[in-house]
Amino acid sequence: EEESIIVQKYCGILFEISTQLGYPLHVKATALSFMKRFYLKHSVMEYDIVFMMLTCIFLATKTEEKFVALANFLEKVNEIVSDASSLTTQIIFKYELVLLQGLEFHLMVYHPYRSLYAYVHDLHDVGGDAIYMDAQTK
Amino acid sequence: MPQTPSLFSLSASEAIFRSVEWDKYKEIVEIGSGAYGRVFSAVNRQTNELVAIKTIKLANDEEGIPISVIREITHLRSLKHDNIVGLREVFINDDGCTLCMVMEYVPHDLSGIVNGLNNVLDEAFVKSVMQQLLSALACIHDSGSLHCDLKTSNVFIHANGQVKLGDFNLSRKVHPEEFGVVQHFSRNIITLWYRPPELLVDQFGSSRYGPEVDMWSMGCIFAELLLRSPLFPGNTEVEQLFKIIQLLGTANQRNWPDASKHQTYRDHFSNKVIPNTLRLKFKDFADYSPQIVDLLEKLLKLDPRERISAREALKHPWFNQAPLPKDTSVILPSYLTPFNENWVKQQIKLRQEEAEKQNPKKRKEYPKASTSSSCYNHHELENSYSSCKKKIKQY
């Protein structure tokens, strides 16, 4: 539907923003899962998706032990996103609570990357460096 | 960007949350308060289960919800195990600034048992506690997490002897090495007394840590259950390291080759040779059951790579020897007098006050008395252990 298209689009944006913020893959993936989980239960009409997207990234930094102070986080976000100046700490607080409730406090996200990396590692053992490098670039 | 009308609906939904969630419980009694907020005990109306409700004030400071709370929720939500404190539900209060965590109520903790009820610590009981703890820990490690704050006051225990591991404020996920992520571990995980040597010598916190750090703490808890007093009660990091080395001996090429790489270790121990006195200290137990000391030795390995894992430790022959862990007949007192951390603190305070009354001049020296009291425990230990033996033989 239209809503899922919107969520899809913002998931892409979320990924770009968090890449620019320099977060590792597992933080990005967790933030994405939070966002998708949240909008399974809620409509994009209810909560502002831009704010929610940034809150997802912020919460993911907490659960994935890549925590940055909120002030720094906002500063960086403002550098990257031009129209986020209306984003304040107050809004993040509010949205963080809503997000937690929306996720029903299920914050643990297991990613398939672990298996993927193990697989790549196995390839390395079998096929030597050439395949390993190839797989890493992909 | 549309202006958010959502903030209105937010407060409305929270009001609903409050009335629904709190109404599920009756007999709400405040039982304590901590740094974050107050703790209540209550009874679930439907299941009649006794629960502890931890309320956490969300002060609108810089960081939003404290990261330790996020950690605890994250891990407790994902872990379901008989020996891990169950998180029943989490909700947010109507005012929007109090987070409530509903957990099962477990009255006692191990620090209370060790200090106040040490006559129950017979071999079967210790074995049962260790087995339950190790199986909880194996579950945590299998799910890719670390507890990182194992200590006796975080091991809760039911009156029927069922152990519940709690307090996941410091726990974290580990990622396999292939992840290519440099994991930034704080060195300040784990309470000092239970901190493994590799964390003490590593000044920059640059190394990678795994489940081994938890296993060291397990070794310390095990020893504390046997001795009835903490094994390495150091006050500073250096003192802590000294206490460890004094018991386990200096590191050499064989038992911890990496030690000499660390500056801190070289500063203090480069020219010394201290023998391993672990077996000497636990001689009484070794005479009685060699497997006890064998397991302890495997848990308290200086080299983290040689330390036994939780799964392996569960297969240790000690757990299959008589008395079996299920043989424990210990029944702790009912929940009306919880033997827990707070109780211990109260007792220490009381003892101090008494001592001050008796000889007010000695007041300043009293803080050191903890060492003398542990010596006292040590004497007492032999007596109580031999009485334990008798009990076991009577079985």
UniProtKB/TrEMBL annotation, chain B:
Q: What is its EC number?
A: 2.7.11.22
Positions of ATP binding: K54
Q: Does the keyword Transmembrane helix apply?
A: no
What SMART domains does its record include?
A: S_TKc
User: A biological process (GO) annotation for this entry?
Assistant: positive regulation of transcription elongation by RNA polymerase II
Q: Name one GO cellular component term.
A: cyclin-dependent protein kinase holoenzyme complex
State the Gene3D superfamilies in the record: Phosphorylase Kinase, domain 1 (3.30.200.20), Transferase(Phosphotransferase) domain 1 (1.10.510.10)
User: Could you tell me which residue ranges the Protein kinase domain spans?
Assistant: 25-319
The answer to whether UniProt assigns keyword ATP-binding to this entry is yes
In this chain, the stretch annotated as Disordered covers 353-375
Keywords (alphabetical) are:
ATP-binding, Kinase, Nucleotide-binding, Serine/threonine-protein kinase, Transferase
**Catalytic activity as recorded in UniProt:** L-threonyl-[protein] + ATP = O-phospho-L-threonyl-[protein] + ADP + H(+); L-seryl-[protein] + ATP = O-phospho-L-seryl-[protein] + ADP + H(+)
Q: Name one GO molecular function term.
A: cyclin-dependent protein serine/threonine kinase activity
So what family is this one in? Belongs to the protein kinase superfamily. CMGC Ser/Thr protein kinase family. CDC2/CDKX subfamily.
Query: Do you know which PANTHER family this protein is assigned to?
Result: CELL DIVISION PROTEIN KINASE, CYCLIN-DEPENDENT KINASE 12
Q: What is the recorded name of this protein?
A: cyclin-dependent kinase
The organism is Naegleria gruberi (Amoeba)
